[in-house]
Structures are given as C-alpha cells and as structure tokens.
Design goal:
With 258 residues, this protein is α+β, with helices and mostly antiparallel strands. It is built from nine helices and seven strands.
C-alpha cells in the first residue's frame, strides 16, 4: 500500500497558469473526462444496484470485467480506497452502511474531485433510499441486504448522469471549489493494485475450497469409521445373537404348542 500523490498536475508538470488562474484550472479540468463508469453496489457481495457508462464507451471489456470482479471482493477491503486498473484507469470507491459507491476515472483526473463526486452520489442515494423505503428509524442496510435482483435502483442512473455532467463542466463552481479542497482528507486514502486484490481473492477462495474439501473428507472418514465399527460388532456378537434368537423362537414355539 502507498499513499497517492494528490497534487494537481499543473503543480508538478512545470506548466505555468495563465492570467486569472481559474481560467487555467477550467482548461485543465475540461481536458480530463469525468467518471467513465459509476457503480452503486451492495458491499457484501457486489450485487449491482445501479450503474452508468459514459457516452464515449472507451472502456475495454477487460476493465469492465475487472470492475465487476472488484465489486465482489470489497467486503474485505478498506472503506475508502483507490485501485489501479488496467491501462490508464483507476477505480475510486467509498463504502458506507453496506453500500459501495465506485467509479472509474483516468489516472490524471484529480483524486479529491473524484471522491467529492462519490460523496455527492452517496448523499443523493441516501435521499433515494428515503423515497423508496421511508424515513424515520428505517434500517436501510437491512432493506439493501434483502434485495435479490440486480439494478433495483436503475432509475437512479439519471441523477448520476446529471451529477457527472456537473463535474465535467469546466465552468462548474462546485468542481473548481472541490479541486483544491479536502486534500488532507483524500491524501490518507490508500492505493492498491487490482491484480493483487484479485489474486488475493483467488488465494482466499482456494483456501476456502481446501477447507471445504477437508471438511467433506473428514465427514466421509467419520461415516466409514462408523460402518467399520458396526461390521466389527456384527462379527463379534453376530453368532451369539443368532443363537439367542433361535433359542427364543424355540421357546416361543413350545409355549404356543403347549
């Protein structure tokens, strides 16, 4: 694990801001596309509740498959993390109360702006939960865990798309204000590599399978031991039991004849 360097690219690239630095920042943001894909999923098992893709559809099938594999591994992950994907992409995600909010960005897109986007999606989704399940002392996590079919909140994709456009807009005052805010908070978020995560998940699955196989073999051995014990008992007491049964039958026969 290593903390990510969160300085805006113009601070390290040697480029000089033009007059009226905000104008420079607007051009920088406009050159960096917003989230290519956004997921809201159940963190327990990765069940996708809603997802949106950008219009350019520049994400490869490999990255799409990685995204869905990653969602199924998040129950053992930190609540907030950045995960390096294939190519020039990075997944940023945040988990809260059994729900994962994850989006795929270009590596050059400002990390603090990415998590600001996820935070706002989180707030909007909480409002959606209130509309769906009511307000008050409602256990939204229990409702989420009871959902059986994917894309239960498919209609929520409109709000995600709208918020995505808001962050893509270089003239958005919110995007500009978030660009240089919360650097200290975001700097503590760790970065991992997706291949390591998926490999670690495969290792855990392998250990789980081996444990299950050992349990099954132990059960088979126990059953076999029981059968052998029964056979030994039959061999030891079988003849005596047959003689006793025949004697009992003879006695009963004589009593009935008498």
């Amino acid at each position: 694990l290593q903390a990510d360097n969160l300085k805006p690219s113009w601070l390290t690239s040697g480029a000089q801001p033009c007059a009226g630095g905000a104008g420079f920042l607007r051009r920088e943001v406009s050159q960096k596309p917003m989230a290519h894909v956004t997921f809201i999923a159940r963190s327990l098992d990765g069940l996708i509740l809603v997802e949106t893709w950008d219009d350019s559809n520049k994400v490869s099938k490999q990255v799409k498959d990685q995204a869905k594999q990653l969602l199924r591994k998040l129950h053992n992950m930190p609540p907030k993390c950045s995960v390096e994907g294939a190519g020039d992409f990075v997944f940023h995600y945040s988990m809260d109360n059994g729900v994962c909010y994850m989006a795929l960005f270009d590596r050059s897109y400002p990390k603090n702006l990415s998590f600001a986007f996820l935070d706002e999606i989180h707030v909007l989704f909480q409002q959606e939960l209130q509309r769906e399940f009511g307000t008050g002392s409602v256990d939204y996590r229990s409702h989420i865990e009871c959902i059986e079919k994917p894309y239960f909140f498919i209609k929520f994709d409109r709000q995600i798309t709208k918020k995505n456009a808001e962050y893509r807009d270089p003239k958005s005052s919110k995007a500009l204000s978030k660009l240089n805010s919360n650097l200290q908070e975001v700097s503590s978020i760790m970065r991992q590599n997706i291949d390591e995560i998926l490999k670690r998940g495969e290792n855990l699955d392998s250990v789980s399978r081996k444990a299950s196989d050992m349990k099954n073999e132990s059960k088979k051995f126990k059953d076999m031991t029981g059968r052998l014990s029964f056979q030994t008992m039959i061999q030891k007491y079988g003849v005596i039991a047959v003689i006793a049964l025949m004697a009992l039958l003879i006695v009963c026969f004589k009593l009935f004849r008498g």
